[in-house]
Every structure is written in C-alpha cells, then in structure tokens.
Write a structure and sequence with these properties.
Blueprint lengths: L1 H5 L2 H27 L6 H22 L1 H20 L3 E3 L2 E3 L1 H18 L3 H16 L2 H8 L10 E9 L4 H14 L4 E8 L5 E7 L6 H12 L4 E10 L2
Antiparallel strand pairs: 1-2, 3-5, 3-6, 4-5
C-alpha cells in the first residue's frame, strides 16, 4: 500500500497548486493562440504547460531539486520535437516558427510552476503574451518598409539553359561574366532535364545585388550563342 505512504496533505496541495497555476497560465497563452487561429491553440498550449509542470513536480517530490533540474533539461529538449511538428515549409517560406516558439515558452511556464516558482511563471506568461500581441504592430510596420535591394544580403542564383555539347563553354562563360560584373561565384550546379537540355546554376557568394546591373548581365547571357534562356532568383538569407 505504497499509495497510502505517499499521500500527504501538504505535498498534495503543493502539487495541486503547481498544476493549477500551469493550467491557468497555459490557458491564457492558448487563448491568444486560438484567437489567432494557430495550429497549436488553446488545448495544446495548456497541455504543454500542465505536462511540463507535472514532470517537474513529480521529479521534485521524488528526488528533490537536483532531479527537477535534470527533468527540466529533458523538457526543454523534448518540447523541440513537438514544436517541429507545427513548422511547415512552403517553397521558400517557413510557417509555424512563432507557434513552435510559443509552445516552447508554454513549457517554460509549466516548468516554473512545477518548481513552485509561481511568480516567475506569471512573469514568463506576461512577456509571452506581450511578445505575441504588443509586438505585432511593430512587425507590421517593419514589413511595410520597402526593401532596398542594394543593401539586402541574399542568396543569388543565376540559371542558364544550354545544350549538353555546349556545357563546358557555357559554364566557363557564365563564371567569367559574373566575375566581371563583380558577382563572385561560390558554387556551380548542373542539372540535366528530360527534354535533353542542361541547366547550369551559379550560386553567388553572399553579397548585395543591384537589380539593374544583374538584369543587364542576364540580357548579355541570354544573347550568348550557346545559351537559350537565362534568369536569376534571389532569396533572403536568415
């Protein structure tokens, strides 16, 4: 009857308080996420907070603060797998990073509550809610600022299409022309297509690009006898 031996009023009340704090604070975070129609909403954030609090509280009751600290480290790493499930890549765009970060913070709220750090858990919740609400107008303002292509670091890829027989000559001309325009080449990728054509992709060294200049280079490349098509693509480095 070990159950009877482990039931003590004060420790049980302490666990109830920790789980209650985690439940309430996780719910507050989840309400904001649910209102924004995020994939991880009310129930998910609440369960993450309660679960983290439960693991830490159990470890603390069984083996003390040292074991609780070890469990917290497992919670921090383990929640990463849950966060990865809400991150989706759509082409060059990545969605769900903010939702995953919020889940991570919900786990921090639960860990603090499970460690009987109720004030700290409340403070974390306040800052999480502030980050997800008060910073939204700032993000909107920044995103509305026109991007200056001349000062933005980006990954630049220049692609030309040619025939297999002309590949060595076209590849050499592509590298020489880009270097002459002060766009050093970091890597060259060659892709063979089913229609018999070959695409040569030059990945430029991380640099700034002037649209007018790079478009001029594309026109010159397109006019080369061995090149049937030339284009370029820019993606922002993060």
């Amino acid at each position: 009857m070990r159950f009877v031996e482990t039931v003590h009023l004060l420790p049980v009340l302490d666990s109830i308080f920790s789980l209650f704090v985690a439940f309430v604070l996780g719910t507050l975070i989840g309400v904001e996420r649910q209102f924004r129609q995020r994939s991880a909403g009310l129930r998910t954030n609440t369960l993450v907070a309660v679960g983290a609090a439960a693991f830490v509280d159990i470890a603390q009751r069984l083996a003390g603060d040292a074991e609780a600290v070890r469990v917290i480290s497992y919670v921090v790493s383990g929640i990463g797998f849950l966060g990865a499930g809400v991150i989706m890549k759509d082409g060059l765009n990545v969605r769900g990073l903010n939702t995953a970060a919020t889940l991570w913070c919900s786990a921090a709220v639960g860990a603090a509550a499970g460690s009987d750090l109720a004030v700290e858990a409340v403070l974390i919740t306040v800052f999480v809610l502030a980050g997800n609400t008060l910073l939204r107008p700032v993000v909107t303002w920044i995103e509305r600022i026109p991007v200056n292509d001349a000062t933005t670091e980006a990954r630049i890829e220049v692609r030309v299409t040619t025939e297999p027989a002309s590949l060595p000559r076209v590849r050499r001309h592509l590298i020489d022309r880009l270097q002459a325009a002060h766009y050093p080449v970091a890597d060259i990728e060659v892709t063979e297509h089913s229609d018999g054509t070959t695409e040569v992709t030059a990945v430029l060294v991380s640099t700034t690009v002037v649209t007018v200049e790079i478009e001029g280079v594309m026109r010159e490349l397109a006019g080369h006898p061995g090149i049937s098509h030339a284009t370029w693509e820019s993606s922002t480095l993060e």
